[in-house]
Structures are given as structure tokens and as C-alpha cells.
Amino acid sequence: MPTIAQIAAQVRHLITEVQAEEVDEARRTPDAPRIVDVREQNEWDAGHIPGAELIPLGTVAQVAAERLPKKDERIVLHCAAGVRSAVATYQLQQLGYTNVSSMAGGFSAWRELGLPIEAPLTGAQLERYSRHLLIPEVGIGGQQTLLRSKVLMVGAGGLGSPAAYYLAAAGVGTLGIVDSDVVDATNLQRQILHSSERIGEPKVESAKRTLEALNPDVRIVGYRERLEASNIDRIIADYDVIVDGADNFPTRYLLNDASVKWRKPVVHGSIYRFEGQVTVFKPFEGPCYRCLFHEPPPPELAPSCAEAGVLGVLPGVIGTIQANEAIKLLLGIGEPLIGRYLLFDALDATFREVKLRRDPKCPVCGENPTITEYIDYEGFCASPADWRAQHEPSVATPAD
């Protein structure tokens, strides 16, 4: 069986060839030709002529009627060096196309002349995200979306560390990290984001240094401050998705109320000994945190990890699931955990799922919200009953 090069040599005298300079001049005119690239997807991704369209050689004959319906239209085909495009030009001529030509020298000639090239990703990015680019649900477009995306990490500890690491590796362009703590020698995830040689360094600085070294495409924005009502609007306004790795109830309730206000999806995660939970709170498409927990449990029923302990690998499991959910939300793929509460038992190595529904009486996202502005979250979480007695009448009237 003859090779593509041998076929091209046989048909070259039967087709018309044009030079790259001619094509460049022609594409700038009102009656510009239709430029068709007959290379493969990976070649196209590495760079292509602006305004060209991709129809790989192996599909030209099959899709010509649909993709190129006008047989008298001026069409210029090109490949890498002019071999495949010569064959494609001959194929189209045999199908009745009357004004089709091949660009001599192909894309190599175009590049050597320094003519304009579009490359959605750099060579380094094509290599770095090569596995993503092979997935139809991601591809070049999805990877570009990730590179433009912004995710806010609340907390850089057990949950935030693995989540941030994998989001950075995936190419999420901007990662904001809110954490007022410093690196602690007992931090379960310090090996992921925080160098044990720099104990006492602010976590946000440690994370910035580590993540930017991991992936230079990612910009890290550090907020070395506690998330409070006075700063939350400023911090979350520009982000697409929030990953909740908070370890205290005041921050969780504040984050929930702000996410409803700004309509920002929150990927929530929590851990306790051998158990982990993940869900997605997407305002008005599913329940919010207050739909599930109108008020926090008594402290004796909800001890922290420092008080009750946690299996060392558990934060990694839950944090990476949170990263997965964030990526799904950013790309608009799959079925995010909206209205679904995923529970993981590390002892049994089992997952189970609980369906969740919005509470029409929710004080924040319900039909008649009673909390319409930020409240005293420390006071509310310390004693919900006392807070209700003092403040409920004043917040019962919806804001104008």
C-alpha cells in the first residue's frame, strides 16, 4: 500500500499549490479563502493559522458535504509540510470541488515566515496538561477555562492543603487562600503544602511558595487574616467557587450567608476521627448550610479534630474529593454533589450518600428569610438561644 507521501507525489501535478505568503495576503481581503487545516488535533493544539478550521485528513471525504457545502467556494488546505494537504486537495477535486488548492510547505513554511499563529496553550502547558487534553470533557477549551478560573480556599490545613495542591496541579489559574495561622509541626498536611523546615512561617506564604513552584501557571493570592463579616465581601467577590476547609462554626455560618448573598457555590468538607463528609452548597439550586444546620450543635457534641482526633489520611481523601467537585463546577461537567451529602467511613472504606433538600423555612435562603445581613457569628455559635432572644426580632424584617 502506498504511503501518504507517495500518493502526494503522484497527485501533486494534478492540483493547484499556493505559497504561504499568498495565503496570508488573501486572508486579509474581503473575499478571503476558507483555510482548512488537515493535521491532527494535537498538531492543531500546538499552534494554527488564525481563522483556520480543523478537518483532519482521515475525515475530509466523510465530512466534506457537511463542513464544506459550497463546492465552488475558494478553499486552501494545509498540513505540516504540504504532503497531506496535497492528498486532501485531490480528494476534494474528485468530489467535485472546483476552487481548492494546497499550501506549499504547509504550516512549517508559514511558521518560518513569521506569520501569525494562534496557540491556545504554550508548549509547556500542552505537556503539563496532556492528560487533561485527552479527555473530551476537558480538552483545550476546558483547560483554558480552568486557567481563567478563580477558586478561594478557606483554610490551608488538613482539608485545604490537599485540595489546593490538586487544584494547582490541574491548572486553576488563581487560588486564593485565607488562613491566619502559621505552619505547625503537628499539622497533618504539612508535607503537602508546608515545609517542616520552616515551622512558624505563615501558612499562606508557605502555600504560595509551594504551589507556585508546583505549577508556574497558577497565581496564589494569600489572605493572612481571619474571615470575618468586615472583610468577607472584599475577599470572595472575585472568585468562582469556594472550597470550605474551615474548622469552626462561626466561619462556616459566615461563609454560608456570604455565599448565598453573592450566589457563590461552596464545596463543603468536614472530618471527624474516621469519618468525612462532602457536599456542594449552590445557592438556590440546592440547600445551603443553614438548611441542614439552622444552628450549631452544643460544643460537647461537636469536638474539634484537636480534641477528638482524626485519622491522618482522612483529610487527604476528603480534600481531594473537594478539589474534584470544584473542578466539575468550574467546567460544568458531571453531577456535582448539589443536594447530595457524601459520607466516607475510613474504617469500612465505604461511601454512602444522603439526599438533601432546601428548607423553605431556611432563615437565609428560604421563602421568607429572617437573616438578611451578617450577624454576630461568634455570639450566635456560642449560644444560639441567647442570640435569638436578643436579635431575632431585629432581623425578622427582610431588607429592602
Keywords for this entry:
single chain; 400 residues; Oxidized Rhodanese, domain 1; Rossmann fold; 5-stranded parallel β-sheet; 19 helices; disordered C terminus
SS-derived structural category: alpha/beta
Number of domains: 2
Describe the largest sheet: 8 strands, mixed
Return Rg in Å. Answer: 28 Å
Portion in strands: 15-25%
CATH architecture of the largest domain: 3-Layer(aba) Sandwich
Give the strand tally: 13
The CATH superfamily title of the largest domain: NAD(P)-binding Rossmann-like Domain
Stated plainly, the CATH topology of the largest domain is called Rossmann fold
Shape: elongated
Would you kindly provide a written description of the structure presented here, covering whatever features stand out?
With 400 residues, the chain is of the alpha/beta class. It has two domains: 4-119, Oxidized Rhodanese, domain 1 (3-Layer(aba) Sandwich), CATH 3.40.250; 130-395, NAD(P)-binding Rossmann-like Domain (Rossmann fold, 3-Layer(aba) Sandwich). The protein has 19 helices and 13 strands. The chain has helices spanning 4-11, 20-26, 41-46, 60-67, 83-94, 106-112, 123-128, 130-133, 139-148, 160-170, 190-193, 203-214, 232-236, 249-262, 289-292, 305-308, 314-331, 377-382, 384-395; strands at residues 17-18, 34-37, 53-54, 75-78, 100-103, 150-154, 174-178, 219-223, 241-244, 266-272, 275-281, 340-345, 350-355. β12 and β13 (350-355) form a beta hairpin. α1 packs across α5 (83-94) and α10 crosses α17. The longest helix is centred in the last third of the chain and has 18 residues, at 314-331. It is elongated, with a radius of gyration of 28 Å.
